[in-house]
Structures are given as structure tokens and as C-alpha cells.
Design goal:
This is EIF-2B GDP-GTP exchange factor subunit epsilon. Helix content is 38%, strand content 17%. It is built from 23 helices and 38 strands. Strands 15-16-19-22-25-28-31-34-35 form a 9-stranded mixed sheet, with no helix packed on it. The protein has a 7-stranded mixed sheet with strand order 5-4-1-6-12-8-13, with helices on both faces. It has a 6-stranded parallel sheet with strand order 17-20-23-26-29-32, with no helix packed on it. Helix 4 links the parallel strand 4 and strand 5. Helix 1 packs across helix 5, helix 15 packs across helix 17 and helix 17 runs antiparallel to helix 18.
Length: 795
């Protein structure tokens, strides 16, 4: 009890320093950056290098986090280093971050920390030590003790002062990428704190629908359930480890009784960016069982009805924020960076810690080059690809949707798709790499093949013509015999950052001084002639986690299997009349609002359209089969509870937006693409030419993707929806199509996408409309007249 009272008194003394509004105005914003994820998801790579220093589009992850913190107005960052701490500290001390004006980076090192909770407890203890030393200094001055004693205590005071948390701070890990503004979230947090001292934390969240098939987000994280008060934005429930086999989640009855309105969400992404009050640090100290930030701390506060501490949420919409939790999120965030969703933290913009590259537009895509690369004329570098400084690419090699690091040598006839090749890698002639990660210094002998999902750790050598099986992890280090949990530390030697596991060179077993013949045989490398490294075995039950969290696309057979299982579950759910509404909102009858429901429905439609467009663009970029795209759109349809007409409209919108974005040669003039079937009927015939680039783009895209669009046009009503959607686009989001409405309507008819009945019904429905609503009917009069006459002749 004495220790707890002492902590409480020290915390109160520290808080009193920051309660003055004038002091708050003068205090610079601070951040605690955890430079360790305290997980093992990036093994075997993180046995040799800390996760925050792994390259993300050729830039160490931590640079994205620090660059954002600086831009967001943070003045002081405490970087907490655990695993491979020496590597992190050496990197920061030799980087530009230690010399930035008005931006201070300080490192805190500890080798006895095994969780984020331990790290925050240590920081709190340093804060308390500051208060203790300050009080002692005052006593020294009053008692007029020796000057030397006072001087020593002053030095201690100044040392601890350098790690002082003055007020509200940002809590973030060094594997987070964002470009959001903190201004509004900070203001909301401070305003709430003034009204309620128990409002200790604000979590940043973002809308992100999980796949109903895989039950995970696009970042590869588990489906997250949140209950939020729609009025105050207070977080009431948080569950990231739901048991999907039961098909239900459990809410405390008191939660429903005490809150008249609750919004239950499974469409939110936790960005792992938190704005915290100083009390958060003391809460970790008072509860030593708080280890994990979410599973322990957040859930612990939500269940604690004694202290009454509260967590609130702030949702971002147009900004970007994502944490790299696994290999799949590494792949997704890399693609987002290349596609410039994270601007200004993109390859062609210089920011602290990166080397700006030239950006070349190819079709609708961008490819980033460094001016110092050597590329054979016959080599093909496709879209969404970044090539690092000093890399050489041999003849007839093909690279697409990939990131190539600095100083790499790529031979002839090499195929690289959707892969991440880090620095100083040698890939000899005839190798194939699809959706893999290859770390620094790897050598691939001629003809070697890496199947999807493979991870090659540092300096591995793959033998000639050897095929590495899918999802394999290969390292110079033997696989640990003890499988640590995700909350255990992923480093070996505390002081040097070197690994304690036996390496390929045959390091002696530390327990008995030599490697046994049995152990040597069991770990004998099998990587072909000249190969060097160990293929790690997949632990029991780990096969599913491999394909779920890999950089490789989820296999088609797995999607089919999961889709069939989902259909069975859906039948069970529809039989339960007490199931939640699709909006997820639990509202008492007295507070129900039809207007709110309509607003939610509108928001869902907007998000659904964006998700379909993103899915369609990925399909175009990666040459995905139409059947696979249909499967993905169907999963989105189930997730958002949309109709076939909604799907048809979203797909059509995506196709037309692609037509606008796709440039072609300006030399193209009048193109005889679609001779009119009625050009001989009337003397004033419909033009038989489509002029200019936009018409050609539209015709080509409709031809290529007509099967996808037709799959959602089951009735005449869906076809009319397409025409109405096109009208809306011509008037608002894609006015470039306005003068071409009638011509493109003809293309859709000619390709059997629209039937004449749909077009004529659309025209008839416009009969009593205002003239302003008949603009496109007037433009299409000749075409409509021809259809009527043709229909009468058939009758």
C-alpha cells in the first residue's frame, strides 16, 4: 500500500505541473514511439534485424513514422528500443533525425522489457523519479547541505528531465504509416478532458470493411468488433479475437441497459495511433497484468467499472493510417505507398530518410526509377514498380508490381511479379519470383524458382534450378526449437543485437559445446546445389496462418472453400429472426431515427462503390481473371448488404472512371469502331465513328470487362440502373462523357449489355420529367427513334 500511495502522490505532483492552461499552451507535443512490435510475425527476418529498420519501398519503416510525427506537429519523440536496440540507436544517431530543427528524437534502451506494457511502466517510473529528485533538491536547498551533494542531485534531475512526459502524448509504434492531421483529434481529446478527467485516451480509427470470406481486413488482421456510442464516440466494446465458429458475439447486458444508443461495428480499422493523457502511464504501473495495448489495457479499462476511465475514438476519412502487422499488411501498405495514397510520403517526394526517385507514368500506373540504374533495352519494367539506386537489369527480364532495392543485379530472362527484393541481391539468369520477399545479400543461382509466399532471410543462397515451396521461410539460422508466443521478445543477444541461434556455419551448441550428428542431420540445408540456408518447418496448425498473412494472394481453392462455408453460415443466420440489423446499430424505440438510418445507408453505398473501384483497379493492374473479380465483388456485396443493381452501378462506375484515367496516343483521330446498325435507315443517320481518345478507351474497356458487368444485369431494372448511373456521372463526377452519352449508350446496346427494352423504358420514364432531366434523352433521340421503329417492324 505504501508503494502505491507513493506512486499516486508522485503522479499527482507531476499532473499538477501540467494542469495550468498557460503551461499546456506552452508545452510541446510529445510522442512515445515503440521501436519493437513484441511479436514474432516477421521471423526469421527479425532475428537479425529489428522490424522498424526493415525497408518499406526502400525506406526503413521508422522513417515513415518519424516523418509523419514531425509533420503532425510533434516536437519531441521518445523512441523506446528493445530488440536489436543497438542497431536502432546506431541508425538514428547516424541519420538526419538527430539534427532536425524543432524536432527532437531521444532513445530509451532496455533489455529486460518483453511487452509494450513493460515499456510504458519503465517510462512512468522515470517520470516518478523526476518528481522524487525535484522534491529532494528542494530539501537539499532548504537544509543547506554540501554543494557537491546538491550538484550531484541536479545532474540526476537533468538526466531524468530529458525523458519527462509533460502532458498529453501520442503513442505509436515504429511500423505505422500515416499522413493524417492530428489537429482535430487533439482538440477533441483536450475538450473532453476538460469536461471529464476520466477521458484518458483517444484511439484513431478508420473505416475498412473486412472480407466476409476470410474474416480479416485488407491488411490481413482479424475482423475487429467495436461498440461505440454514436453521440459521444466513446468506445464501449473492443474484440479482435472473436470466435467465428459460434457465429455470435456476446455483449454485457449492463452495456445495453446503460447506453440508450450503441453502434456495433465490424467495419472499423484500428490505426494503432493513440492520443493519451499522462494517467495512462500510471495505469500500466498499477496493473502489472497489462502487457498488450489492446487485449489487456483497452479491454481492461472497458471492463473496469470502479475507476471509470474512458476511451474515445476519432475516425478519419480522407487521410491514410495503417500499421504493418504481418506480411500481408507489408504488401498492402507498400502498394498504397507506390499508388500515392500516403502522399507526401511517396517514392518521388524527398522526405527525411529516403532517396527521391523519378516517377514515370505508364498508362494509369506509375513506375519509380532511380537515375542511376542500368536496364537492358529488351528488359520490361511494368507498372507500380520501384527500382532502387545502382540496380542492373538484364535482357528480356520482366518486372511488375514489385520493389527492387539498391545495388541489385538481375540477370537475363528473369521474371519478377508482386515481389519485394531488398538491397544487394543477385538473381541469376532464368529465375522466377512471384509474390515473395527477398532480404539483403541473397543469391539465387540460375533457374531457381520461388513459389508464392516465400521469405528468404539475409544472405541465403538458393541452388541452381531449385524450387522453393510456397510459403517457405528460409534463413541462415536454424529454426528455434521453442515456439515463443506473440507477446515474447523476438531478439536474442541483448547487448549486441546478434542472434544466439545456431547458424549455417555450424555454430557449436551452447549447451554441450558441439552440434550432435542427429541435430546436424535434422537441420541439414536442402536448397539445391550450392544452396546455403535452412527451410523452416511450418508448425502444426500454422499452414492456415501462412496463406492468411502472406504477401501472396489467397489461393483460389481457399477462397472457394471459405465461400462455401460462409454460405452455410449465412443460411443459419437468416433463420435467426433475432439477428442484428445490417446497420449494426442497437437503438431503443424511443430514440430510433429514420434519418440516421438513411444517412448510414448512404455512407455504406459510398464506401461500397470505393471498395468495388479499388478491387476493379487491382484486377486491371494484376490481370486478375473475371471470375475471380466476380467472387471478390460478391463478397463485398454480402459485406455491405447490397443488391445486384448496386453492384452493376459500382462496376460500371469503375469501368468509366478507368476510361477517363487511361491515356492513349494523341495521334488517334476518327476511329471506325462501331458502324451503326441503323445508319442506312434514315438519311440523317447516326454517326458511325467514335472520335478521340476517350471514346476508344471506353469501347476497349467495355469490350474487355463486359462479362463482369453482365453478371450483375439479371433484370431490366438493373440495366436501367446503369443508364441512370451514367446520367449521374455525366452531370457530376465525369462530365467528360456528357457529349458522348448517346454514342456510349449505343456501344452498350451493341455489346448486348443493354437491351432495347431497358433503353426505351428509360426514355418513357423521362416523358413527364423537367426539361433539365431530359438532356440525355434529347441527345439520344435518333438512337431511341431507331429502336422504336425497329421494334415496330418486328411486331
Amino acid at each position: 500500500m505504501g508503494a502505491q500511495k507513493k506512486r499516486a502522490a508522485a503522479a499527482a505532483a507531476a499532473a499538477r505541473v501540467s494542469e495550468d492552461p498557460d503551461d499546456l499552451a506552452r508545452q510541446p507535443l510529445q510522442a512515445i514511439l515503440l521501436a519493437d512490435s513484441f511479436t514474432t510475425k516477421f521471423r526469421p527476418i527479425t532475428l537479425e534485424r529489428p522490424k522498424v529498420l526493415l525497408p518499406l519501398v526502400n525506406v526503413p519503416m521508422i522513417n515513415y513514422t518519424l516523418a509523419w510525427l514531425e509533420a503532425a506537429g510533434v516536437a519531441e519523440v521518445f523512441v523506446f528500443c528493445c530488440a536489436h536496440s543497438k542497431q536502432v540507436i546506431d541508425y538514428l544517431e547516424n541519420s538526419e533525425w538527430f539534427s532536425q530543427p524543432n524536432f527532437t528524437v531521444k532513445t530509451i534502451e532496455s533489455h529486460n522489457i518483453i511487452s509494450a506494457g513493460d515499456a510504458l511502466r519503465l517510462i512512468y517510473e522515470q517520470n516518478v523519479a523526476l518528481v522524487d529528485i525535484a522534491c529532494l533538491l528542494k530539501l537539499v536547498s532548504l537544509s543547506r547541505l554540501k554543494l557537491a551533494t546538491c550538484y550531484t542531485l541536479t545532474i540526476c534531475f537533468l538526466v531524468v528531465l530529458s525523458f519527462k512526459i509533460h502532458g498529453d502524448f501520442v503513442l505509436i509504434s515504429g511500423d505505422t504509416v500515416s499522413n493524417m492531421s492530428l489537429t482535430q483529434a487533439l482538440q477533441e481529446h483536450k475538450e473532453r478532458k476538460k469536461k471529464d478527467n476520466n477521458a484518458v485516451m483517444t484511439m484513431i480509427i478508420k473505416k475498412s470493411k473486412p472480407s466476409p470470406i476470410t474474416r480479416q481486413s485488407r491488411l490481413g488482421t482479424d475482423e475487429l468488433f467495436m461498440a461505440i456510442d454514436p453521440n459521444t464516440k466513446q468506445l464501449l466494446y473492443y474484440e479482435d479475437k472473436a470466435d467465428h465458429s459460434k457465429g455470435t458475439i456476446c455483449l454485457d447486458k449492463m452495456l445495453l441497459a446503460e447506453n440508450p444508443s450503441i453502434s456495433l461495428h465490424n467495419d472499423k480499422q484500428d490505426c494503432y495511433i493513440d492520443i493519451c493523457s499522462p494517467e495512462v502511464l500510471s495505469l500500466f504501473t498499477d496493473n502489472f497484468d497489462y502487457q498488450h495495448l489492446r487485449r489487456h489495457f483497452v479491454k481492461g479499462l472497458l471492463l473496469d467499472d470502479i475507476m471509470g476511465y474512458k476511451i474515445f475514438t476519432h475516425e478519419i476519412h480522407s487521410s491514410y493510417a495503417a500499421r504493418i502487422d504481418n506480411y500481408r499488411s507489408y504488401d498492402i501498405v507498400s502498394k498504397d505507398i507506390i499508388q500515392r495514397w500516403t502522399y507526401p510520403y511517396v517514392p518521388d517526394v524527398k522526405f527525411c530518410g529516403n532517396r527521391a526517385t523519378k516517377l514515370e507514368r505508364r498508362g494509369i500506373c506509375f513506375t519509380a526509377f532511380n537515375s542511376e540504374i542500368e536496364q537492358s533495352r529488351s528488359a520490361q519494367v511494368g507498372s507500380f514498380t520501384v527500382i532502387g539506386y545502382g540496380t542492373k537489369i538484364g535482357s528480356n527480364s520482366k518486372i511488375s508490381d514489385s520493389v527492387i532495392g539498391e545495388g541489385c543485379t538481375i540477370g537475363s530472362n528473369v521474371l519478377i511479379e508482386g515481389s519485394y527484393i531488398w538491397d544487394n541481391v543477385i538473381i541469376e539468369d532464368g529465375c522466377e519470383l512471384r509474390h515473395v520477399i527477398v532480404c539483403d545479400g541473397v543469391i539465387m543461382k540460375a533457374g531457381a524458382v520461388l513459389k508464392p509466399g516465400v521469405v528468404l532471410s539475409f544472405k541465403v543462397v538458393i541452388g541452381e534450378r531449385f524450387v522453393v515451396p510456397a510459403y517457405s521461410k528460409v534463413s541462415l539460422l536454424q529454426q528455434p526449437t521453442v515456439h515463443d508466443s506473440d507477446e515474447e521478445l523476438e531478439y536474442a543477444d541483448n547487448s549486441s543485437g546478434t542472434v544466439e541461434f545456431s547458424s549455417i556455419q555450424g555454430t557449436a551448441d551452447q549447451s554441450n559445446g558441439e552440434m550432435t550428428s542427429e541435430s546436424s542431420e535434422a537441420h541439414k540445408p536442402k536448397l539445391g546445389t550450392g544452396g546455403v540456408g535452412y527451410i523452416w518447418s511450418i508448425c502444426e496448425g500454422g499452414q492456415e496462418e501462412e496463406w492468411r498473412h502472406s504477401v501472396a494472394p489467397i489461393p483460389e481453392d481457399k477462397l472457394t472453400e471459405l465461400s462455401e462455408a460462409m454460405d452455410d453460415d449465412q443460411e443459419l443466420v437468416t433463420q435467426d429472426r433475432t439477428a442484428l440489423s445490417t446497420s449494426g446499430e442497437l437503438i431503443s424505440d424511443s430514440n430510433a431515427s429514420e434519418g440516421d438510418d438513411n444517412e448510414d445507408s448512404k455512407d455504406d453505398s459510398v464506401y461500397f462503390e470505393k471498395e468495388v473501384e479499388a478491387t476493379f483497379l487491382r484486377a486491371v493492374e494484376e490481370n486478375v481473371k473475371v471470375d475471380h473479380v466476380i467472387l471478390e465483388v460478391n463478397s463485398l456485396r454480402l459485406s455491405y448488404n447490397m443488391t445486384s443493381a448496386d453492384c452493376a452501378g459500382a462496376v460500371f462506375y469503375s469501368m468509366m472512371k478507368l476510361a477517363i484515367k487511361t491515356p492513349h496516343s494523341s495521334a488517334i483521330g476518327l476511329l471506325t469502331l462501331y458502324p451503326s446498325p441503323f445508319s442506312m435507315v434514315a438519311s440523317n443517320a447516326y454517326p458511325i465513328y467514335l472520335s478521340g481518345e476517350l471514346q476508344q478507351n471506353t469501347a476497349n474497356i467495355i469490350t474487355t470487362w463486359q462479362k463482369l458487368l453482365k453478371s450483375y444485369l439479371l433484370e431490366i431494372d438493373e440495366e436501367i440502373e446503369i443508364i441512370l448511373k451514367f446520367e449521374e456521372m455525366c452531370l457530376e463526377s465525369a462530365k467528360e462523357f456528357s457529349p458522348l452519352f448517346a454514342r456510349i449508350l449505343h456501344i452498350l446496346y451493341d455489346k448486348d449489355i443493354l437491351q432495347e427494352d431497358a433503353i426505351l423504358r428509360w426514355a418513357d420514364e423521362k416523358e413527364g420529367a423537367d426539361e433539365s432531366d431530359k438532356v440525355f434523352v434529347r441527345q439520344s433521340e435518333k438512337f431511341i427513334q431507331w429502336l422504336r421503329e425497329a421494334s415496330e417492324e418486328e411486331d
